[in-house]
């Protein structure tokens, strides 16, 4: 085994010089090289600290060498590193590894080298897991923690899912997407900086620090020390941001590790984090937040956030139901390049209805008051988050009959500031966040004769190893006809595979090729919407009947409802036939669906 101070075996890499404008010309200005890392801390060695050297294979000369610190070497993305000399305005090289495995290997040895150095520091000075400091690796081999060393995160999460997760959050553009959610970022800033009494002179841990923005907010509020813990490759930029805001950044200690791998000698006064995913619990980061609470938070310490609430309500949206049904009409073709696709139509319908719908919907589609599930993050356990059941007993509140198409969901969290408690909400009708809202759309709607009837059931969230949840929804409503059996509808949804919905009807994309601009198309849609808002009962009934026919043709309407004209009309009208500002777009989408068209959807983040 190599001793401290020895050089690692060479790693074959590709290098490129970074121009003054920050660009890298890989096609014309790159070269092959060998990267070696010294573990340092050996008196007989010429260096007493970790160091690196990059040797140009073509010229057989040293391209760059220097001390190995978080400011001279960092991982920028999945396979890309930056190395620079410690001197100000020194040259910088971009280093590209041949594979993700090779990049993990390089980072592993860097962690070993820095961990060995930190072992010589006073107790409490090291923010990395002490296992990193137990000795150097024999060669550039991934350390055990990269494969799963028994920590709670690795034990419950699929390795491939974790790698993709950290790769995603290690990219600067995805951090920008979150920062540009000004509702989210602004509320976090207000929650922290308007409660300086909770932060002034306090020690803080930022769980999953990302770009470090919340850590810097804590510094603005007067924190004396902030541990910014981040497992992804974004940490190089986190350190750069801290260095670029020196007055605040000097408070930060950036730690590149999973929270489950961190070992610091002190407890902290405050935990801050943004651990919320879609439906609050997606990505399962809340469990990591609770681990940090149990491991690092002082008794009586503050948590920002500390309370999470999931809210659910019945909704009626015939336009959305028809839109999703129409997505599967592709599979009704019996002569697709002389191939009959129709045998897969039923499976395609099931697949589309297994996706949760993520969008910002109008409050007019809600047909009940919400039920809520409260999660006290100060007391609940990780096991509580792995199996969440929300009982449902909801009263339908409409002026007439309606079709219940499923369950609408949103969440909010509380920052319990001493001076100024602050809520962050994702509720419909409130300023939209990058979480939007979520709907579980049932393939078989439940038809409710009128107000006052109750729909009962449960929403059951079961965590799985791919950092998400299976969502089981069961609803039971009144008989479709007097004396008949209760209606029951159920569905299973994968929270990790949502349908990100944008109401941009396919009609515009077709018109664009005919020379109609998007602005002209929107103007036409607006005029049609104004006309629809003036519809009388006869026009509304005609439209409802058309929607009922489409649903009947797709086999998604209960037979009892098909026999009832009033129930059939209810399937189309829902709560409000225009569904507010979405009504005309739903009408147009339904007309396109009848002709075999589709809707264009894209992720909005």
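Sequence proposed for the structure above (605 residues):
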């Amino acid at each position: 085994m190599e001793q401290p101070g020895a050089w690692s075996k060479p790693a074959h890499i590709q290098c490129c010089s970074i121009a003054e404008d920050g660009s890298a010309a890989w096609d014309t200005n790159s070269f092959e090289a060998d990267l070696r890392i010294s573990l340092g801390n050996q008196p007989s060695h010429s260096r007493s600290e970790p160091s690196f050297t990059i040797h140009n294979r073509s010229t057989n000369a040293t391209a760059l060498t220097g001390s190995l610190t978080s400011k001279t070497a960092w991982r920028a993305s999945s396979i890309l590193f930056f190395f620079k000399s410690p001197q100000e305005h020194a040259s910088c090289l971009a280093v590209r590894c041949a594979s993700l495995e090779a990049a993990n290997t390089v980072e592993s040895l860097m962690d070993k080298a820095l961990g060995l150095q930190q072992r010589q520091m006073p107790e409490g000075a090291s923010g990395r897991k002490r296992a990193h400091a137990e000795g150097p690796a024999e060669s550039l081999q991934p350390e055990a923690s990269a494969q799963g060393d028994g920590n709670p995160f690795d034990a419950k999460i699929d390795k491939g899912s974790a790698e993709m997760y950290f790769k995603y959050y290690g990219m600067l553009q995805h951090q920008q997407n979150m920062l540009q959610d000004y509702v989210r970022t602004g509320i976090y800033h207000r929650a922290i900086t308007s409660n300086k009494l909770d932060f002034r002179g306090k020690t803080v841990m930022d769980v999953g620090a990302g770009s470090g923005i919340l850590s810097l907010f804590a510094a603005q509020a007067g924190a004396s020390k902030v541990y910014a813990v981040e497992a992804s490759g974004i940490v190089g930029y986190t350190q750069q941001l801290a260095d670029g805001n020196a007055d605040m950044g000097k408070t930060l200690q950036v730690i590149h590790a999973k929270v489950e791998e961190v070992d610091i000698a002190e407890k902290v006064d405050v935990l801050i984090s943004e651990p919320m995913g879609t439906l609050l619990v997606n990505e399962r980061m809340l469990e990591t937040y609770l681990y940090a609470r149990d491991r690092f938070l002082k008794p009586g310490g503050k948590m920002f956030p500390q309370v999470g609430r999931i809210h659910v309500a019945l909704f009626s949206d015939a336009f959305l139901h028809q839109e999703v049904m129409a997505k599967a009409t592709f599979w009704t073709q019996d002569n697709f390049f002389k191939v009959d696709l129709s045998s897969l139509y039923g499976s395609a319908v099931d697949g589309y209805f297994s996706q949760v719908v993520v969008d910002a919907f109008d409050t007019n589609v809600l047909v009940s008051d919400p039920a809520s599930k409260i999660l006290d993050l100060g007391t609940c356990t990780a096991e509580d988050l792995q199996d969440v059941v929300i009982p449902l007993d909801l009263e339908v509140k409409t002026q007439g009959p309606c079709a219940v198409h499923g369950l609408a969901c949103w969440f909010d969290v509380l920052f319990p500031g001493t001076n100024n408690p602050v809520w962050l909400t994702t509720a419909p009708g409130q300023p939209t966040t990058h979480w939007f809202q979520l709907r579980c759309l049932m393939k078989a709607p439940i038809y409710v004769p009128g107000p006052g009837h109750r729909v009962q059931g449960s929403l059951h969230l079961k965590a799985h190893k791919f950092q998400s949840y299976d969502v089981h929804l069961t609803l039971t409503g009144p008989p479709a006809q007097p004396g008949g059996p209760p209606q029951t509808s159920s569905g299973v949804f994968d929270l990790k595979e949502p349908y990100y919905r944008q109401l941009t009807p396919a009609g515009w994309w077709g018109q664009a090729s005919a020379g109609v601009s998007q602005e002209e198309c929107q103007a036409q849609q607006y005029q049609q919407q104004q006309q629809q808002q003036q519809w009388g009962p006869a026009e509304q009934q005609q439209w409802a009947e058309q929607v009922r026919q489409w649903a009947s043709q797709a086999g998604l309407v209960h037979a009892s409802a098909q026999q009832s004209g009033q129930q059939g009309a209810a399937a189309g009208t829902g709560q409000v036939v225009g569904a507010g500002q979405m009504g005309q777009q739903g009408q147009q989408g339904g007309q396109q669906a009848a002709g075999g068209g589709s809707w264009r959807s894209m992720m909005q983040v």
